[in-house]
Amino acid sequence: MKPAPFGYERPRDLQAALAVLAEADASVKIIAGGQSLGPMLNLRLVEPELLIDIAGLAELKQVERQGDELVLGACVTHADIEDGRIPDVTRGAMQGVAGNIAYRAVRNRGTIGGSLSHADPAADWVSALSALGAKLTLRSLAGSRIVAMEDFIVGALESALRAGEIVKTVHVPAMPASAHWGYVKSCRKTGEFAHAIGAVMIDPSAATARIVIGAIDSAPIVMTDAAELFGGRVAGDYKDRFDSRVAEAILARAGVSDAAHRHIHVNVLKRAVREAAA
Amino acid sequence: MRNERDFPSADGAGAGQGVGARLPRKEDDRLMRGRGQFVADIRLAGMQDVAFVRSPLAHARIRAIEVPERYRASVFTAADLAGVRPIRAVSGLPGFKISEQPVLATGKVRQVGELVAMCVAPTRAEAEDIAATVTLDLEELPAVHDMRKAREPGSALVHEEWGDNVFLETNFEVDISRAFDAPIKVSREISTARQCMSPLEGRGVVATFDHRLDQLTLYSAAQMPHITRSGLSECLGMEQGRIRVVSPDVGGGFGHKGILLPEEVCLSWLTMRRGHPVRWTEDRREHLTASSNCREHHYRITVYADRDGRLRGIDCEATVDSGAYSSYPFSACLEAAQVASILPGPYLMPAYRCRTFSVATNKCPILPYRGVARTGVCFALELILDLVAAEAGLEPGEVRLRNLVRPEQMPFDNITKKHFDSGDYPEAMRRALASIDIGGVRARQRKGEIDGRRIGVGVSIYCEQAAHGTSVYSGWGIPMVPGHEQASARLTPDGGLELRVGVHSHGQGMETTLAQVAHEMLGVDVAKVRLILGDTAMTPYSTGTWGSRSMVMAGGAVATACRELGERARHIGAKLLQHDPAVVVLQDGAVRGFNGSVTLKEIAHTWYRRPQDLPTGVDPGGLEVTSGYKPQRDSGTFSYAAHAAVVAVDPDLGEVEILDYVIVEDGGVLVNPMVVDGQIYGGLAQGIGTALYEEMPFDAAGQPLATTLADYLLPGPTEVPAPRLDHMETPSPYTQFGVKGIGEGGAIAPPAAIANAVNDALRPLGVELMQSPITPYRVVEAILARSDAERPVA
Amino acid sequence: MSMIELTVNQRAVQAVAEPRTNLADFVRDKLDLTGTHLGCEHGVCGACTVLLDGVPARSCITYAVACEGAEVTTIEGLDEDAVTSELRAAFTREHALQCGYCTPGMLVSARDLVLRLPEADERAIRVGLSGNLCRCTGYVGIVRAVQSVIEARRARDIAPEPGGERKILGPVGSGRTVRTGADKAERISPASSKQASTEALSSVDAFPDFTPAAVLTQQFSVAHSPEQVFAMFGDIAAVASCLPGASLTAPPNPERVEGAIRVRLGPIAATFSGLARVERNAADMSGRIVGIGNDQRSRSSTQGEIRYRLVPIEQGAATRVDLSIGYTLTGMLAQVGRPGLVRDLAARLIAEFAANLDRRLSGTSPAAPADLSGMSLVSGLLRARITRWFTRFSSRKDGAA
Lengths: 278, 794, 401
Prior knowledge:
The complex is a heterotrimer.
Chain A lengths: L6 E3 L4 H10 L4 E4 L5 H6 L7 E4 L9 E4 L2 E5 L4 H5 L10 H6 L5 H4 L4 H7 L5 H9 L2 E6 L2 E6 H4 E3 L2 E2 L6 E8 L6 E7 L9 E8 L4 E7 L6 E3 L14 H4 L2 H10 L5 H19 L1
Parallel strand pairs in A: 1-3, 2-3
Antiparallel strand pairs in A: 4-5, 5-10, 6-7, 6-10, 8-9, 11-12, 12-13, 13-14
Chain B lengths: L27 H5 L15 E7 L5 E7 L8 E3 L9 E2 L11 E2 L6 E2 L5 E7 L2 H10 L1 E6 L25 E9 L9 E9 L11 E7 L4 E6 L4 H12 L6 E4 L15 H13 L3 E4 L2 H7 L6 E9 L5 E13 L10 H9 L9 E9 L13 H19 L3 H8 L8 E2 L5 E2 L4 H12 L1 H10 L6 E13 L3 H4 L11 E7 L5 E5 L8 H13 L6 E5 L16 H28 L7 E3 L2 E4 L2 E4 H10 L14 E6 L7 E13 L6 E11 L6 H21 L30 E5 L21 H13 L13 H15 L4
Parallel strand pairs in B: 1-14, 12-13, 16-17, 22-23, 29-30
Antiparallel strand pairs in B: 1-7, 2-6, 2-8, 3-7, 4-5, 9-17, 10-15, 11-12, 11-14, 15-16, 18-19, 20-28, 21-22, 21-27, 24-25, 25-26, 28-29
Helix pairs in contact in B: 7-8, 7-16, 12-13, 13-14, 15-16
Chain C lengths: L1 E7 L2 E7 L5 H8 L18 E4 L2 E4 L12 E3 L8 H12 L9 H14 L5 H7 L11 H16 L31 E2 L25 E9 L3 H9 L1 H7 L3 E3 L7 E10 L2 E14 L4 E10 L4 E14 L4 E14 H5 L2 H23 L18 H11 L11
Parallel strand pairs in C: 1-5
Antiparallel strand pairs in C: 1-2, 3-4, 3-5, 7-13, 8-9, 9-10, 10-11, 11-12, 12-13
Helix pairs in contact in C: 2-3, 2-5, 3-5, 9-10
C-alpha cells in the first residue's frame, strides 16, 4: 500500500518547526527517521495532512555532557549510539540496547526521540531509559518542560506530549560505578518487537534499584524504588533475594491477566536481575 | 547406479557440466545485478495501476457499493463485468459441492479481502486514493471461522445453497476392525496452523492487448502459465489462441503462484475495456489477508500397535479448512483427499481408516503449499508414533525402523495403493540416528543443563510422491490432468541450443539444470544453451511447475527431444563424414567417425547456411525437434528423507532453540547436487517456520490478525540453523536418468522432527504440544497447565 | 509534487515526485532502476535495502523528499564495486540465491557487514543479516558466502570499519539539502483534497445481537441513591458527555441515539459513526446501551455495549455502579492494531468513562469531552484514581500469542 497524500515541510530550525506545529491542526505529524511512522503511513493507518521533517535540524543532533548527565538530541540515531559516535555515561548500557533494536538498516535512520514519541510499549528505549532514570526535555513554542521517563509514557502509543510539543533532548544520568545493569528482552526472532522486557539498574552500595517491566500492553511498570522485589531491602545479595511472587503480583495488579504472559515477564525480569549481578 | 542406456555421453568429455555436476547457475548474474525482470519491473507505454476495494468483513451481504460521481469512469464492480464468468474449479470426486468464485463479489462477500471493486489510475497511490472513496454498505453475517464448528448443524453457511459447509467428505477403509484388539492404542487431536506461503515477491499482473495479433497478453508471476491461459479462456469466453500468458522472473512460488487469480481475470477484462495496459502488484498486506492460505489441518487420530511397537493400524478423522472458494485448477478438495491417500506414510500398515472433510469457511481459499498435505500428515503421524514409542518403551527411532517399508520389498504397493518406486527407508533413518548421536543426547539429558533448559531429540521420516501424472490425476477430475510433458530443442545456425519448455522456474535454477540435461545428451556447452520458459506463445503446453515434477518431467522431455535432435545431427554428420550412420557416434558436441569428426556447429551451419552440401535423403525435420516424455510408470517418484533435530527448550520463557539438525535425503539421481541442497535448505527454513513461527490467526468475526511481517513471522538467518545433509542416491527405475522430484521435501518433515524434539524435552514434565506452531506462549501455557493440574486441590 | 534533487549511483538526478513517494518507488518509477525490490513496504523484509549516504537504509519507509541532497546507491550502482563483486562471486559459488528477489537488498546488507565486522563470526553474520528475509535458500549459502568474503578480506589485511563510513550524527540521508536557499521552508500541499467526509452508517434497522470479543469491567461507588443514578443513566445526552470522544449527531430519543465516537490509538485516529439503542430495566436497576458504528476511512466497524447494574449500598443511600464494556472490532483496525494495545485503549476508555460518571454524579462536570486519547487529558488527581482502578480490570483473555 502507498500512503494517502500528505504535505511535507522541512523547517530551517527548531523554532520554525515549532511554529508550524503550533499553527497546524491535529492532522500534522512530526517525522524524523520515519521508521515507526513510515509503516503506518504506508498502511494508511495514519493520514496526516502535513509531515514536518525534523531529521535535518542540527539542534536535535547535538550531544553534550552537562555535569553528571549526557544530553542527547532527539534525532540521534540508534546506530549513532551503537557505533559509539556519541560519548557514553552508562558504562556501555545504552550501546548494548541500541545494537539490538530492530535491524541495522532501521537503526541507521531510526532516532531515539522518535522511538520515545511513538511510545510503543514494546520499544527498547521506553523501558531502558526508564530504568536508567532518564528525563526528557519537551519543547513547544510556549517553552520547555522536563519530564521523567516514568511519567512520559502513559499508555499504549500514548505519551505525555501535548499538542504543539516535541521531544527535544534526552537527559541520561551517568551510571554510578557501583551500579549494576541488566537488560533482557524476549523476542520470538531477532529484531522483532519484544514480548517481554526486563530492565534493571541496581546499586547495592546505595541500596537502590530501578526496575522496569516493559512490553506489557500498556505503559511499562516502572519501580523507582523496587526494594519490595527483594524482600524489602536492596543489598549485595539481591540476586538471591529476588522474589518472583512479588513480581507476579505486580503484573497481575497491572492488568496482565494471563498467567503465561506473567510467567514470561517474571522470568525475563529475573534474568535481567541475574545479568546485573553477573 | 544410473541407467547407462540413457547416457549417450555419460562420463565422457564435457563432464563437469552434465547430470551430477555442481554447476553454478546461469541465472545468478542478472539477479545479482538487479537486472532480473519481475512483473513489477515491466514498463509499457500508457500503463496504469490498479488497486482493489476489498471486503473488510469475512461474511456479509452487499447492500450497495457507492462510487463518487467523479470516479465513475475509474471504478468497476461486478455489475460492469458483463459476460465474465466466475472461477469454477470442480472436482469429479463423488459428492463434491461446487463453489463459484465471482472475480468481483456479487451478492455476498465470503472472506476478508475478497475483491469488490477495481480502481484504475496512473499510479498505485492514486488508485488507492480512489479506492478509499468507494463506500461499501455491507450487512454483516455471522462468520464461519472455525472449520470444526462449521460442520455442526446450525452453523452459518458460506454457500447457502449447499445446506452445509462441506465441500467434500471422503472415506477410506481397509480392515480397520482387525486393529482394534491391539495392546497399544493411542489417541490424540493434532493440528497445524493456517499459514501464508509468503514468497518475497507477491503475485503480480500486467495485462495488455495487442491488436495486430488480436491477442491479450497477460504477464503474471505464475507457476503454470498454460493453465492460467485455460482458466482465463474459460472465464473470459475467449479462444485460447487469443490469449498469451507470459511469466517472467518469478520471486518464489511455493504453490502460491499456482492458481488462477480473480485479479488476472479482472485485469484482462480491464485492459480490453480501457485500451491501455494495466498493472496490479500484490502487496504484503494483500498477500497476508486476502490471498491464498495453506496448511490448516485438524486430525483426530488413533494408532494401534503391538507391544513390540509394530503398527497394527491407524484410524483417523481429518478436517481441512478449505476456505471460501475452490481454487483453479487444484480445487478445494485436493488437500484433504490427499491426506487420506498418504497418511500411512512410508510404513507397513496392515489396517487403515480415514475420513476426511474439506470444509468451507469465511477465510481465504487454501492452496497446495510446498509439501501440500504431507507436512500436516507427517506432523500428525510422526507425533503420534512417538507416543507409541513411549508406550512400548522403545526409542522413537526404533519404532520407525520396525515399521518402515524395507528395501527388499521395493517397489512396494502400500495400503492406499501408492507405488513406492525404490529406496532404502530404514537406512535413511539409521544414518540420521547415527548422525544425530541419540546416545550422546540421552547422556546429556541425564546430566541436565546448567542453564536450566531441557534438551530433546526428535526424528521424523516421510516419503513423497512427486511428478505423479495421468494415472493419479485423472481420478481427481479437476480442471488439470498432466499427460506427456514436451520440450522443443533447436540447434541455432551458430551451433547454440535453444530449449523451450512449458514448466517455469521461480528459483529452482532450471535455466541451468535443464541445460545440464541437454549437455548430457548433446555435449553442447551449457553456456551455449538457452532456456525459454514461462511463455505460452513460445513453449509447448505444460501443466507447469508444481508437485516437484519439473526435473522429472521437463528434464525427461528435454532429454528426449535432445536425443532425437542428436540422432538427426548424427545422420547429417555421418553423411558429411561419408560414413554409415551406424558407425558414427555423437560425443562431446561432435559426430565422430573412424577418421574424423564434425562438430554440431558445423552440422548446424550446413543445415541452415549451406543446405546445398546436404546429401539427399536428409530428415526434412532438420535440427528442430519437439518431443514428449512420460516416465515408464506415471504413478510418481518417491523421494524420501529422515530428519533428526536436537532442541533446547527454555521452560521459563518458552523459547525453543535448534541445536543440531540432520537430514538424510534420497532424491534419486541428482542433476545438480548444489541446486538440490539449496532446495532442501530452503524447504527446511519453511518447515521451521511451520514448526515454530508462522501462523495466521483469525478472530471469531473471521478477521485475519497478522497483517504485516511484524505479526506474521518468517524465519530469518538466526532462526534457521545450517543443517547437516547426507545424500543417498537410489535411482528411480522409471524415470530418465533415475531422477526423482525433490523440490518440496525439505518442508515436510521439520515440523514433526522439531515438535517431537520439544515433546521429548518436556516429557519428564508431563507436557506435550500437539499443535503447530510451537510458540513460546504455547510452551509456557502447556507447562503451567500441567503444574496447575498437579497442584493438590485445596 | 515537488522537484527532488539527489545523487543516485553517483549521478545527479532531478525528478518531480509527491512527498508520499518512497525512495524505492522513486528510483524504480522515476529512474527505471528496478533492481530495488519491494517486499513488504513496512520495513521488515529488507528487499528494498539501498545505501543511503553510504550505509544501508530501508527505501520503502524512507520518503524520497526527505533525502534531498543525499547520496543513494542502488544495486545497479554496485556493478563495479569491489566488495560487491567479491560477494557476487561468493554468492554464486555458494548458491546463495534462488529466485533472486531478496538478493539486491541482501547484497547491500552483506556489503555493509563485510565492511564492518571484525571477523567472519557466523553468529554475528546471522544477526547482521537478520533484517533481510530470504524465503528460498534457508540462508545457508548466504551465510557461507559472506563468511568467505570476510575471511578473504581480513586475510588480505583489509581492516574492518566498525561504524561503516559514517562520521556525522542523525538519520542517514536527511539533512543534506544542498540547493541554495536550503533554509527556506518548503510547504507542499497534498495532491488531492481530502476525501468526502465520512458517511454516516446508512441504515441500521436491526441490531444483530453480538458476543463481544473483549469485555472490561469496572466498579465504583457514588453517594447517591440508586434511583438518582438510574435517572441519570436515562439521560442519554448526559451519559454520552461522559464518554470521551463521543458526540451526538441528532437529538436522541429514549431508545435510539445517533452519534459518533472519535478514538485515537497513538497516531491512528478513527471516528466511528453510527447508532445506539438504549435498553433499561427499572426492576433491577440495570441497563444496556448497544451501538454499532463505522469508520469509513479505515473501513473498520465496531459493535459495542455498555452494561450497567446499580446495587444499593449503605442502606440505599449510596450506589455501587457495576459497569462492563464489551466490544468487537472488524476491518483494517482490527487486523492491523495489535489486540493488546486496543485493549489498553479500551481500558483507558472505561476508566475515563467511569471517572466522568462519578464526577457528574458527584456534581462536578466531566472533563472536557475530547478524543479518547488516554490519560494525558486527565488531571493528575484523576489519574491516580484511574491507576488504582486499573487493578480491577480484567479482559476475558490477554490473547494468545
